[in-house]
Amino acid sequence: MFIQAPALSSHSGIRHAFFTRQGGVSDGIYASLNGGIGSSDEPAKVQENRRRMAEALGVKPDALISVYQVHSPDAVIVEGPWRGERPKADAMATATPGLALAITTADCGPVLFTDLDARVIGAAHAGWRGAVTGVLESTLTAMERLGARRERIVAVLGPTISQKAYEVGPDFIKRFTDEAPRHERFFRQAEKADYAMFDLPGFIGARLEAAGVGEFTNLDLCTYSDEKRFFSYRRTTHRKEPDYGRLISAIALTP
Question: The pTM is what?
């Protein structure tokens, strides 16, 4: 049902999970642990899937907290369950025990953070757009506002599309190199002329290391190539399927 990172599971003060697509009640293209509130899956099934995730993390169902992700650089501080609409943001930080910060992905990078000395945690949704514009750095800053120190922060990247599966065209290459100059090393030539294979996990790691994070780990799990365990937006697009399930990656402070 979920994968854990040794860099996080060795600490008793937190619970975390990189949930797979297995262990839920959804069916068809959403089979089976679809956590996507924004998907076209039956809402009752998504709710039950998320309840199971909350139970696995030891929190109440309404304490599995997620934001309305928009590929932004924005991070918000969470003090309790949302009242009303979810804020539009792509990262969260908290120092409140019993809240699970939950990121939704289907190829983009889910990054979980902790500074156990300060008892502060964070979670970020890092696609290429968010990573370029600063969502990872915003997460570190939000954690620092709660007392964390970035040189103590451990960051772990969960299931993400790998370079071997991430072909991009000339428009992407130009936009990326315009916005992130001197990062051409994250491209390698694709089989098609003028196309390249983009290393999103490598770019995420480089941004975090440049930002001064204490420790970074990439679990090296590819969403596109491992259909049994992971949903993938790109795989769905290639198959011309009408929608796709969403993976949840979450972290919580224990009381």
Answer: 0.98
